[in-house]
């Protein structure tokens, strides 16, 4: 695989910091520029994040020495330096939408962690193991934008990265009719640590703005299909969600209840999870977990503290599958929200796009 020069837009935030760690010594991607807001522009990245570094592992030295560019004012300069950019900016949604289109129109592809373009109907929103074929809409998007190389591709919200992968193989074979997911979401999803958010200790907050709508609507696009020049959302299964913020540093847990048109046995469900893999595994992409879905037989697993780092934080952990009185089955699942659910998912999507030639 050829080497690609990449940039990180929004490099000073928590997801941007995670990109720095994941891309340091990546076999395909070489970080050559970082960008953020005007208040950070002109500083070395290590100075811009001094006192604001939120991750356990330190900022990679070479990336820390890069001078921060202005994410808005330096678009043309950045586009001339890179093959594509990762975007994780903290701005208003309409501003993000416009910013990402400006990069794309400057012939700089964007792989985005942001939500702004998730429901733009010619922008693929991809979990690479589940709907990799949606990247084929990029040609239609390029026609709309008037670009030869430039496009935007996005990853889905962190909240659904645990339960949608677990439901996907079951929906394909047995047709899920309805599902209920209660998510218990880590504070890093809000860009927080226990030091910066002491109020969360000994507490549960039963509301995360916009999260339940994303958790219910985004799976419909993931399970949708390309029709002409747009992605048409699926109309089923019917998903309802409740999202809570809990005092956990990393790792989103979901309690899932599900019913089927053709109810499988417990053994058939476990077999589907065990055997499920996708294009990332077939292509042996660098960030792809070898075993995507992992079932734990212990009654007290998965646990965020024990299992969130499974396969570099890119695998999904599942447990407690049993029959239910209101739905057919219930189970619990876990994903690492800043790895599989954010920066890691975006890196895996970029690897898929690179393997399929979209950055050439």
Question: CATH superfamily name of the largest domain?
Answer: Dihydrodipicolinate Reductase, domain 2
State the order of secondary-structure elements, H for helix, E for strand.
EHEHHEHEHEHEHEHEEEEHHEHHEEH
Spans where pLDDT lies below 50 across 5 or more residues: none
Structural class designation: alpha/beta
Number of DSSP helical runs: 13
| CATH hierarchy class name of the largest domain | Alpha Beta
Side-by-side strand order of the widest sheet? 3-2-1-4-5-6
What name is given to the CATH topology of the largest domain?
Answer: Dihydrodipicolinate Reductase, domain 2
Overall structural domain count: 2
Beta content comes to 15-25%
Using the 3D structure, state the CATH architecture of the largest domain.
Answer: 2-Layer Sandwich
Q: Oligomer, anyone?
A: single chain
Gyration radius (Cα, Å) is 20 Å
Q: Count of DSSP E strands?
A: 14
Most strands sheet: 6 strands, parallel
Mean pLDDT score, rounded? 97
Q: How many angstroms separate the termini? A: 11 Å
Outline type: globular
How much helix is in the residues? Answer: 25-40%
